[in-house]
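Protocol step 4 of 6.
Sequence for Short-chain dehydrogenase (Thalassobaculum fulvum) entered exactly as in the expression construct, tag removed. Do not edit the line below.
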Amino acid sequence: MSRTHSGRVAVVTGGGSGIGRAIAEALAEAGAAVAVLDANGNAAEDAAGAIAAAGHKAMAVACDVARFEAVESAGHEVAAALGPVDILVNNAGISPKHAGKPASVLEMDPAEWNRVVEVNLTGAFHGVRVFAPGMARRGWGSIVNQSSVAGKTHVGFVAAHYPATKAGLIGLTRHLAGELGPSGVNVNALAPGRIDTPLMRGVATEVNDAIVADTPMRRLGTPADVAAAALFLTSADGHFVTGQVLDVAGGWKLA
Ligand SMILES: NC(=O)c1ccc[n+]([C@@H]2O[C@H](COP(=O)([O-])OP(=O)(O)OC[C@H]3O[C@@H](n4cnc5c(N)ncnc54)[C@H](O)[C@@H]3O)[C@@H](O)[C@H]2O)c1
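Step 5 output, structure tokens:
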């Protein structure tokens, strides 16, 4: 692995599991010091511990991205321990299911809707609000928002809040690319297809089998597939790419 991210400091939200953990590991292997923020403090500790054990610099912060004060306080902790943050990956996300099934919008609990919006969409704003001012001041930064193919097209097996937030992240990404570009900050979104993580395992096997059959590359994605895309977008080589939504989906729902 080349040291494309040497000297950089990166924050990955939801970095304790699945895709976020793979991104945190890839950034660390590429030379970045990485702060793993996760609502599940043990998962964050576990991920940061594994990265440190592999000889890289990492720290864990228990942090619910839906709470602005929690992200603000995480920002102080990270700055004190690792220095100014150059890279932010807004990856934390939830997709509530009930016995493996999404709620129908006809019966959805408004509290569930609000929680998904607060974590998936407002959480990304909180990250930007805390970490982007320093990037803009220093004239270099890179932000990746974790959207989804479900934010671009109808996929059927998620509830209404999920695609609404993932589409919202695409709007946020385009806006931020315009607003922060003059300050040297690139902002992009990833749109993973079906990626084999704990989040996905809550869904019935038949659903995933049908997706594989409908995916030109004929497999589920891996967290490493998504991490490779995040690595490019946050590298110096990817810095002129901004405002884009990059599918990492094996051609699934190709538009
Ligand atoms: N797995 C897929 O097929 C897939 C596809 C497209 C997009 N995504 C997106 O990728 C991201 C990661 O998904 P994953 O599959 O790795 O999920 P995952 O459940 O394995 O990991 C998500 C992590 O986010 C953390 N988290 C949840 N709520 C949080 C909060 N409020 N604050 C901080 N951390 C919080 C969890 O503790 C967990 O460690 C999500 O945004 C998800 O929507 C996943």
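Step 6, annotate. The two ends are 32 Å apart (CA to CA).
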